[in-house]
Amino acid sequence: MSLDVRIDSGRICTGETPSDQAWLNQGKPASIGVRAGKLVLNITPDEPADRVIDAEGCVVCPGFIDIHAHSDFAALHAPNATSKVLTGYTTELNGNCGYGAFPLAGAMKQHRQQEYKSFGLTLDWDDVDGYFRRCRREPMALNQGLLIGHGTLRGSVVGMEARPAGKHEIRAMQRHVERAMRAGCFGLSTGLVYAPGSAADAAEIEALAQVVAYHGGVYASHLRSESDQVVEALDEFLSVCELTHCRAQYSHVKTSGKRNWGKLKAMRERMHRAADGGIEVFADRYPYVASSTDLATIVLPNAALGDGREAMLDRLRDPATRDDLKRAISQRERFNEDGDEWFDRVMVSAVHHDAVREAQGMSLRQWADHAGQAEVLDATFD
User: Fold this and answer.
1) What are phi and psi of 170, to 5 degrees?
2) Is the dihedral of CA 344, 345, 350, 353 positive or negative?
3) By 3-state DSSP, what share of the chain in percent is helix, strand and coil, each rounded to 5?
4) How far apart are CA 375 and CA 382, in angstroms?
5) Distance between CA atoms of 71 and 251, rounded to whole angstroms?
6) Reported pTM
7) Which of 17, 74, 231, 275 is 20 to 30 Å from the Cα of 339, by its Cα?
8) Which residues make Cβ contacts (< 8 Å) with residue 272, sequence separation at least 6?
């Protein structure tokens, strides 16, 4: 029986050796085949095949897994996943940082629909089952694993208001988590620096993580702070893990701001103590000194982000509230430390509104100069 595909002259690397250098150097050029969707090893270059690929000078290895991705909606409006496929990825874990595709109801669904309107994407599902049906109807080129995004879940059950969840609302969220875990989700994620998830207290997260732990899932968290309160935020995260016995992933360890760089040692010690105490906890860390998120999150105080997008925009339209926000921002430690240099380091990387699309690629200060505004914060608010 002939092969479906034969790949010749590539260096075969399985990734099973413990040393990265050994992984890169193992194996001489050889052939590998595919038959009925399964790999066939130890073949000769003259084995019959329907398709032959010359991989001379290339490495042939298993597909990469992006363990922290955000393609929940892109899976539907860009299913070919060209940028990932061409860099060797075959699997993504989506639903990170509390940003998920289900459940969708009320103001949260309206918010997401508006967000993806420009991509021509219609959000015609309400729950995990509906999302899975949509994905099966329009399959993505990559394998996709999913986490339940707490921010989306909370926004659909509690709403966009910055308030504690009631007992009935927590039970409703638990039911959604239970349903999603039974449907095949890998766990729960939080983005506690982002609204509306930022309004949740530790007790709410514990209640949801208990359901995840029961199903053997993982709790992944973008912590409540990555700067001045990062140690306290880590303690909150580890406490949830300890109380629920849930496997855990600390999403992208960061110590933002020079004054916080020295906290990394204490954070590492806490992680090791937790692991020694029986918590199955892991973490990932940026290999570079930049990060990416939405502009409002890094500029505005948390209190200005609550109650949904329209409420936030209303605050920015009000001159008196603007003045209050400017005072609050100027009192932050990072501005005392960095001064006006901070405005030179924040770059606008993507804009979806034609009226301000020219801001792409500019720092906040460059954009203010371009817009002819003396105060950078005014230009930023606009």
Assistant:
1) -65, -40
2) negative
3) 45, 20, 35
4) 11
5) 16
6) 0.86
7) 231
8) none
